[in-house]
Amino acid sequence: xxxxxxxxxxxxxxxxxxxxxxxxxxxxxxxxxxxxxxxxxxxxxxxxxxxxxxxxxxxxxxxxxxxxxxxxxxxxxxxxxxxxxxxxxxxxxxxxxxxxxxxxxxxxxxxxxxxxxxxxxxxxxxxxxxxxxxxxxxxxxxxxxxxxxxxxxxxxxxxxxxxxxxxxxxxxxxxxxxxxxxxxxxxxxxxxxxxxxxxxxxxxxxxxxxxxxxxxxxxxxxxxxxxxxxxxxxxxxxxxxxxxxxxxxxxxxxxxxxxxxxxxxxxxxxxxxxxxxx
Length: 278
Ligand code: SF4
What we know:
By secondary structure, this protein is an alpha/beta fold. It is 40% helix and 19% strand. A four-stranded parallel β-sheet has the order 1-12-10-11, sandwiched between helices. The longest helix is centred in the first third of the chain and has 16 residues, at 13-28. The model has no long low-confidence stretch (mean pLDDT 93). Iron/sulfur cluster binds at residues 12-15, 71, 94, 96-97, 158, 186, 188-189, 257. Iron/sulfur cluster (SF4) is lined by residues 12-15, 71, 94, 96-97, 158, 186, 188-189, 257.
């Protein structure tokens, strides 16, 4: 069986940067080191980090010496609280997410009512919202916005599809007099989706590798299923059952932004092993 791996599979720039920062902090051994929430949505990477002594925490405890902020960023008041407590910080917020926070703040200061396109429950969006002012709203699509206001600023969760942004802008310009849009969508997500779509259309089966709790991995799996190809969302190579590839000629592998290279390689190796048995 031929096995094709998407070039964009695995860690994006922001995740690689954050994971490297966390492992470096562990090496330096600066007291009790913690990440504020899991640094990325991948249980296997979290496990490896905990083995080096870096553990995720949900609260800012007294006994932490060094706290690492994850790629999604954190709300402004939480940031200030950490500083007040005098805890050392490593800010691994992805620079693209930081930009979205800065733009939200700029819009608020410029008198715009900020609309954030994204998932209101996602930590990245909660962080951006904290910079956007009291009258800011989060919408998941254009249909959710009823009265946008007259002077409107738009920022976007980095993983949103551009089509959704286009629909939102079209909706807002119907009534608003002034609209300022910061397209804060990260290219990495769009490129990964495009490549996955192409790959899924030319193979018999797709393996989407990544945390079951990772939004962007779920998005990839959803896309493959929509195309109509047999799709398996797996976290590790051990989950692959031999019957899934029986009689097939071509398999594709893609992976979410929080999936490390070593897991992708293990998936490829297992597929190679299993396919030689059939
Ligand atoms: S997907 Fe883009 S915005 Fe999100 S962490 Fe990766 S590089 Fe940063």
